[in-house]
């Protein structure tokens, strides 16, 4: 899984775009939603199709965002969308129709399959996840139950019978630390800019930012220093980081800002398009979109600006 997303040749940008999924043309979006309707009909379910979801007669809602992104990012193009949609619908219905894992697994089995997960605020209902811990503006840590075909994000109600949330989080973090590092790439250019990227099929790859000290030591062989690191979590299968040690932070910051924005766009499991400063477990946002929304800008101030000034003073360039 590379960080450069390959795009199949499809309708060009000169044709009308779908209002919900702008990476689809109107024609492609109609084809995609038609395949969704057919896949549900194969299971005897007539659904009402909306721009971003479908509903059945029982009032169940099925979001289309992740599935649309999966189809869009498959480099084989629209010819494979019917199979992708059919597999997704079968998996979703099988999961929803099966007995709840919370009823069939023992408390210890649940704890053994518990992981922390970093998600965007748009991915949860705050009323149902009152325990969720804020890790950065718009980002929250929740607990998830890892199942063979799905991931169940656990609400306040689901956690209540399992015990104290603090103890559950400790167990979830221990489980996270036990996961293997599936893949690692170094992104660099000829001018010396570099940052590291963890890549994996695990839904918790990006969430390893919650254990960044150990991850950096494991991947690079060196501990994080007092200044922390730049980090980016564009979507659930990637975590990028650059340990802050010298003025190499400056080119890395710009490159990682572009990396995060590109990785976030049109991907399933999107988390954040921004780059952050990680220091002692605290995340400070360092990039944002321009006011017109057409470009990126770096936003620094306070402690981070002081850090940049110190690093420049300690590592003056040729004069």
Question: What brief labels describe this structure?
Answer:
33% helix; alpha+beta; 10 helices; 319 residues
Q: Brief overview, please?
A:
This protein has helices at residues 26-41, 65-73, 81-97, 101-104, 107-112, 156-159, 165-177, 212-220, 249-264, 303-314; strands at 48-49, 53-55, 61-63, 114-120, 133-136, 139-146, 151-153, 183-188, 194-199, 229-232, 238-243, 275-279, 282-285, 287-289, 296-298. It has 319 residues and is of the alpha+beta class. A hairpin with a 4-residue loop joins strand 6 (139-146) and strand 7.
- Secondary-structure-derived class: alpha+beta
Please indicate the count of domains: 3
> If helices are DSSP runs of H or I spanning 4 or more residues, what is the number of helices?
10
Q: What ranges have pLDDT less than 50 throughout 5 or more consecutive residues?
A: 1-5
SSE sequence, one letter per element: HEEEHHHHEEEEHHEEHEEHEEEEH
- Rounded to an integer in angstroms, the radius of gyration calculated over CA atoms is 21 Å
Helix content: 25-40%
Biggest beta-sheet profile? 6 strands, antiparallel
The chain-level mean pLDDT equals 91
Shape: globular
Report the β-strand fraction as a percent range.
15-25%
Distance between the termini: 42 Å
Report the strand count: 15
Q: What would you call the quaternary organization?
A: single chain
Question: Strand order, biggest sheet?
Answer: 8-9-11-10-12-13
